[in-house]
Amino acid sequence: MGKRFVIAAAAVVLATSLASIATGSPPVVAATTQGVTASTIRIGIPYVDFAAVRAIGVNLDPGNYSDAYKALIANMNAHGGILGRHIVAYLVAVNPVAVAPSATSCTQLTQDDQIFVSIAPLMPDCYLADNVPTINGSGLEQKTSSPGWAPNFTLTPPSSAYDPLQLNVFSKLGAFKGKKVGLFGGDTTDKSEVAIVDAALKKLHVDVTQTAIDAAPEGDDPAAYAQAAVIAERFQSAGVNEVVAVGDGSATWPDALNANQSSYNPPWVATNSADLNGYLEGANNPTYVKNMLTSTSIAQPLQVWGTPAVQSCVRVIRRAFPSDAIEAPPEIVTSKSLQVTTYAAPITACQNLALLATIADRAGRKLTESSFTRAGESLRNVVLPGVPSAVSFGPGRAYALGAVYVGHYDVATKTEKYASTSAVK
Fold first, then answer.
1. Using N-to-C axis directions, what is the helix angle for 159-172 and 191-203, rounded to 10°?
2. Phi, psi (5° rounding) for residue 242?
């Protein structure tokens, strides 16, 4: 499991949360729910043990998550915590290359340590089912929590919510004007997202002429390329002059066109920037991506790094752990630069703790899972550290929505470049 740290320091909140901290001594109240007392909030931080990742030959260094959280929590507590409650944090290093450690850490944190909330767990399902809210849990594309589950408050909206928003932006930019559109799903798992995209485009009065999903067995690249070639021929015969590559298709479409050296190469849209970026990190042929449009809901690392709130967090961490390497993001992202991203831990810890503080502050002194949920879902037009554009949550919607950063391929750097401001005002 790795070494487990318990922090019970004295408190204050991150720069962006200072205004939300009450002044004076709040009234003392009795404990209201698991992990909450009159003077403390118990949180679990099951952070990824990247030493275990490097042990299997994957050289990634995102910085020291344990130190980043410890420094920021101590600073928050030193300034009063959250509405007078100090944060008691249980940090557990989790080996991500095996399933058992994630499940074990969940049991430990929820049942043994009886935490109120979990920060950025790899597999949030276990916590949510145990009625423990999570902040930016990953490994789960959350829509809304299952009935009876606690919410996973996240800054990353699911494709079901984000696709209609980004497609509306692309439509306003004229991407679909006068076009015959073909929808391409890169895998059978994209079927439900293709249906969402189809409905969104039709609502925008876009002419969706063809729809196809590459159903080749996963991992069988030759079969995937062969199916994509057939689909491309069908699109071309139907007069499709704009392709919307959905989900996995955001990587499969340019990969297959390049593998087939296709002469059919219409403008296209990638709905999933993460899959697209995964493709671009390797060798890529500009011929098949320079005519592409995409977007992301998250600001880029260099932009996030430069915000005053994040820099304030970085200063706190550097003071507490001066020997920790914390480097700024590069201006041009390459596959090599993605191996050393020591800025990631400070940014992640800063954002996650700020979101926790913002929600808990809104919930007030009577802090329960229910009041925490209502408070998070009531957040409107909130700006968090490293989130330049205001985002909002909503009833039954524990994810942020509102920012759309449009991206284009840059031939000179062979990378994707995103706008510094959101297209949604």
1. 40
2. -155, 125
Q: Is residue 335 classed exposed, middle or buried when 0-12, 13-18 and 19+ CB atoms within 10 A define those classes?
A: exposed
> Sorting pLDDT into bands at 50, 70 and 90, what band is 10?
very low
Structure tokens at 177: 């004007």
Cα 122 to Cα 115, 140, 331: the distances in Å are 16, 8, 28
Q: Does domain 160-296 have CATH number 3.10.100.10?
A: no
Going by C-beta distance under 8 Å and a sequence separation of 6 or more, which residues neighbour residue 51? 2, 93
Which CATH number does the domain 1-157+299-402 belong to among 3.40.50.2300, 3.30.930.10, 1.10.443.10, 2.130.10.10?
A: 3.40.50.2300
Q: What is the pTM of this model?
A: 0.86
68, 348 in Cβ contact below 8 A? yes
pLDDT in tens, 405-420: 999 999 888 888 999 9
Same fold, 1-157+299-402 and 160-296: yes
> What residue segments make up the domains of the chain, in order of their start?
1-157+299-402, 160-296
How does pLDDT run across 108-163, given as a tens digit for each residue?
Answer: 999 999 999 999 998 899 999 999 999 999 875 444 456 679 999 999 999 999 99
> Does residue 376 contact residue 359 with C-beta atoms inside 8 Å?
yes
Q: Which helix (H) or strand (E) holds 310?
A: helix 308-320
Please, are residues 248 and 186 in contact by the beta-carbon 8 Å criterion?
Answer: yes
> φ and ψ at 199, to 5 degrees?
-65, -40
